[in-house]
Design brief:
Blueprint lengths: L5 H12 L9 H12 L6 H7 L1 H13 L5 H16 L4 E4 L9 H9 L3 E7 L5 E7 L6 E5 L4 E7 L3 E3 L18 H6 L4 H5 L6 H4 L9 H9 L1 H5 L3 E5 L5 E5 L8 E7 L5 E3 L3 H10 L3 E3 L2 E5 L4 E4 L7 E7 L2 E4 L3 E4 L2 E5 L4 E3 L2 E7 L5 H10 L3
Parallel strand pairs: 5-7
Antiparallel strand pairs: 1-2, 2-3, 3-4, 4-5, 6-19, 7-8, 9-19, 10-18, 11-12, 12-17, 13-14, 14-15, 15-18, 16-17
Helix pairs in contact: 3-4, 4-5
């Protein structure tokens, strides 16, 4: 077993010396709030602000930019607020409204961890701060002692979550997986998983996610994920809704883990396999006139928006290619569009973990009694 670091021992000792605390909104409550926010059902933001101001700000922001909020944001805000309550960090600051509250020395420290502060929870004397942060490749938050710049890095994860899900390098015209040195340098934790799928063809597997990985490769992907992201600990909730803290490098002791490659991830780009796209369209008996393609509507699958509204946003040519409805002309049962407007979904890779059966008391007893 990987031993605990000095920082892990310190923060976990403090966390488990505090009385067991339920998260301020449990999973069921968060799900209800999320569904209402995405469907634009009335939410009392003033009431939410009293319990979790960061969440109220995030919901309000989603309304202003007219973009559905991700459900994981609800958990991140709730876990951060619960942790702040436990550590008596009672002063809340929205960093976008007050950019000068956090001392410059702390800002420099956060920058070294590639973190951009969003919200700050501070002790009344400003000697200790929990920074809820954002930034590509960075962790979710940092607990910092202002005087000595002692920093504990914290990742917030829902009971069912992915460690990370980067885009894989784009496959080639025949659908074959490509693994680049640049990708492996950035995400070394996935090397063994990819070695086990070196013959993967995305055109043969589209519509199905890949899960057949060895336990060893999954363990590496999950356990090593937080080494590069500098996370000391992970906060999640147990099956009774209590906030729990775990060492980031010992997640596999407590979680059911799984590896996954998705041929069609969230991110989409301009088509990079145009020859393959044309072949797929020809199989649908599409008609070509220059760049304009016409296909029978009944041969295309409807594409819906992510989130609660699920509005129709376009048409799927197959699980890997789609066209936005706004880029289409529809006449009776025929859909026409410029082939250069088609979008292609990029494959992703991830390590997944589930804390479904996690119990606060078992974790506390384990780390209270074990000697590292």
């Amino acid at each position: 077993m990987i031993p605990l670091t000095k920082l892990q021992k310190e923060i976990m000792q403090e966390f488990y010396s505090i009385e067991k605390t339920r998260v301020i909104y449990d999973k069921k409550e968060r799900q209800g709030l999320w569904q209402k926010s995405t469907k634009k059902v009335f939410l009392n933001l003033e009431e939410i602000f009293k319990k979790c101001p960061a969440l109220a700000h995030q919901i309000n922001k989603s309304y202003k930019i007219k973009n559905n909020i991700q459900s994981a944001i609800f958990s991140e805000c709730v876990y951060a607020q619960t942790l702040a309550n436990m550590f008596h960090l009672n002063h809340f600051i929205n960093c976008s409204e007050d950019r000068h509250f956090i001392p410059e020395t702390i800002n420099h420290l956060l920058q070294s961890y590639h973190l951009v502060p969003r919200y700050c929870y501070s002790s009344d004397d400003k000697k200790r701060m929990l920074i809820q942060a954002g930034g590509a490749g960075g962790i979710d938050s940092a607990l910092i002692s202002v005087i000595d710049l002692n920093i504990y890095t914290i990742e917030f994860k829902e009971p069912k979550a992915k460690t990370s899900e980067p885009d894989l390098p784009k496959y080639i015209e025949n659908g074959k997986l490509v693994v680049t040195l640049d990708f492996l340098e950035r995400y070394p934790q996935f090397q063994q998983m990819l070695n086990e799928q070196k013959d993967l063809n995305f055109f043969e597997k589209m519509g199905n996610n890949i899960h057949n990985f060895s336990k060893e490769s999954i363990h590496i992907a999950v356990s090593n994920n937080y080494v590069k992201k500098y996370a000391d600990v992970i906060c999640t909730e147990d099956k009774s809704g209590n906030l729990v803290m775990l060492p980031a490098n010992q997640v596999t002791l407590w979680a059911k883990t799984e590896g996954e490659i998705r041929p069609a991830g969230r991110n989409h780009y301009k088509v990079w396999t145009p020859l393959a796209l044309k072949i797929f369209l020809e199989k649908l008996n599409a008609k070509f006139e220059g760049n304009i393609v016409t296909v029978e509507k009944s041969k295309l699958e409807l594409r819906k928006e992510r989130g609660g509204n699920r509005k129709i946003s376009g048409f799927k040519i197959n699980p890997l290619f789609f066209i936005y409805q706004k880029d289409c002309t529809i006449k009776e049962n025929l859909v026409s569009f410029d082939i250069t407007h088609v979008r292609q979904l990029n494959p992703t890779i991830a390590g997944k973990m589930s804390f479904k059966n996690l119990e606060y008391n078992k974790v506390k007893d384990y780390y209270t009694n074990i000697k590292n």
